[in-house]
Task: structure prediction
Amino acid sequence: MAKTQTSEFDQVVSRSAAGGLWSLLRGFRLTYAGAIGSLAVSTAARTGTFFLIGYLVDQVLTSDTMMRDLPWVAAGFIALALTEGAFTFTSGRLAARTAEGIALKIRNYFYDHIQRLTFAFHDKMPTGDLIQRATSDVEAVRKFYAEQAIGVGRIVLLFLVNFIAVLTINRQLAVLSVIIVPVIITISIFFFRRVSKAYGYYQEQDAVLSTTLQENLTGVRVVKAFARQQYEMDKFERDNSEKFRRGKKLLIMHSLFWPSADILCSAQMIAGFAIGALMVMNQTLTMGEYVTYMGLVVLLIWPMRELGRMVVQASTGIVSFGRLAEIIRLHREPIEHGVYTPTMDERVRGEIVFRNVGFEYEKEHRVLRDISFHAKPGEVIALMGPTGSGKTSLVNLLPRFYEYEQGSIQLDGVELNEYPREYLRRQIGIVEQEPFLFSRTLRENITYGVGREVSDDEVFAAARAAAVHDVILAFPDGYNTLVGEKGITLSGGQKQRVTIARTILKNPRILILDDSTSAVDTETEQAIRDALQALMRDRTTFIIAHRIQSVMSADQIFVLEKGRITQRGAHRELLKQDGLYKKIYELQARIESEVEAAIADEASAAVPSATQPYEPELIPALS
Result:
């Protein structure tokens, strides 16, 4: 099903806008044809009404059997009105079913597609822009099918049916009545091109405004903490003013089109009425035919004016389709593709070898250079270094979030890029530096990503291991407590422990802990570290940390600077070397000593009668 939809949308976006919109009708073409057919019947019924009026004027009102014929004429009017109403309703219903079905298909595919795009894409693409495309642009495409395309069909049918009807009355009058049509179409095409470009610019700015709003709401705590409300308001006003400027330009184009079209259509209609009146005076037309013509010419001329409006409005749907196609054309991350195809139940041992690995996000801006090391199964590898040194970039290569361009990475003797991404990510558990929780229950957050039914005992065991079980039970609904957006009902440390429980439950063979204890207090940190020590047993683990205490027990410690490993070894070995590691150790030890000394002084001042002085104690095992 998914592959079929992918193939279908690949064909849709590979064509022109018109071809793509036609391709989207696949599966709904009969329904849409029914809508157009119903519209044709409705149009014929309306045209028939004016012919019946002409018949009434010429044949009934002047006959001796007028009283006998009037009920039949009235019944004819009623029948035509009912036919027109019924088929108009049917047409609208079928068009709406088509439009909603297509919108549903696009939304589902687009949502699935953006989840399968690469990390590099999401790094560069603003979230607000994607939301704009998934909502506003999909809605514009829906309106295209529900209103604009069917509206153009209605106008074309009205023109053809009524032009043929006027031809049956008088050919000369019919030709004179449509002289203005080529002019209207030319003006519509001119405005269509201008409006399409202006609407594209407007949508781009709308996406910028959505991004600004999304970022502000996401970081509202930071805004308030730094009292930057006025700065953010000024920024929003600038973006909003630019949207206003572009929207104003778009509306001016619309406002120029309508008066021009109205003047031309009114002039054509007045000319038609005048010519028809002269023909009646010359007895070329009967009064009934003239009355019929007066009704038909309105259906002939004004739809042309509406055609211009529909064409201009249809440009918004075409532009929005192009914006959606721009994203859909991007290649998906092939998560299931791999030269080496182990079964999903097959477990890796966790032996990882880097050989002269290089990586860059952008050309000529290399992030990692000549990274080489050998991690045996079950070893703990710690990564330290200043911000931007490449620690997170290094571990992001393991689940193939990004692809290395230089060197070799092997997992259990097999080149890493030969493994399917989906398989690798099932074998790797990640605890991010910034924990993320979904707006679901705590139980659902903990079991997220396991991919199987999980018993309560398993959930409780994982939560206990992450030192969060008692915290969860303290909530009124326990594990069924709903977590707010991004987990805002929990403290930073509680969110971090829930994400650790999620990783523990996944039971991966390779662990990546990206500074995962940075958001918790010292007591909780120790509890989590004890749990993680048990979890890391027999698992290859990568720890990114800034605290010496978090990496002291690692089998290998790598210090990264500017994308290179400048130091490597165990804790005691690195303390004997002059380098960044020793400097960090001495700095943190001094700070720890000063803090504990200050606490001891305050305690002594608060309890002067104490006979046993407090002796500050450095971090155990630091030396």
The first helix runs from residue 2 to 13.
